[in-house]
Amino acid sequence: MLEITNATNFNQFTQKILDDHAENGNLFGFDGYEALAGWTGNFAQENAALDLTQYIRTDSEVSQQWINILPFYRQGNGVFDNKVYMLPVRDI
After folding, report:
1. DSSP per-residue codes, the chain
2. Angle, CA 13 vertex, CA 12 and CA 16 arms, to 5°
3. What is the pLDDT at residue 6?
4. Which residue has the higher pLDDT, 86 or 8?
5. With 0-12 CB in 10 A as exposed, 13-18 as middle and 19+ as buried, what is 40?
6. pLDDT, tens digit, for every residue of 60-74?
């Protein structure tokens, strides 16, 4: 279990994730994160995030959810270098 009590700010936490990925090739064994939009580029550049673009194009349920998100939020919160790396979520 990841304990983040030593990460006093988001920059330290982001760096901890990237360091773990560089050292171990994994992201603490999790399939995904809830993260700030600003982290998208950091994770993508370090290959610590999966390119989801093809998944969104081929999975009809995910594709429908993706187009229901306003373009401003899709682009600003999930896209880096014209590829989708994060999926914005709405309040439930």
Report:
1. ----TT--SHHHHHHHHHHHHHHHSSSTT-S-----TTHHHHHHHTT-S---HHHHHH-HHHHHHHHTS-HHHHHHHHEETTEE--------
2. 85
3. 46
4. 86
5. buried
6. 888 888 888 888 888
For 14, 29, 35, the CA distances from 7, given in Å and listed in that order, are 9, 19, 14
pLDDT of 3 reads 45
Overall pTM surpassing 0.70 (yes/no): no
Chain centre distance of CA 51: 9
The domain spans of the chain are: 10-84
Task: Name the residue with tokens 């309040």.
Answer: 91
pLDDT at position 18 is: 75
d(CA 53, CA 50): 9
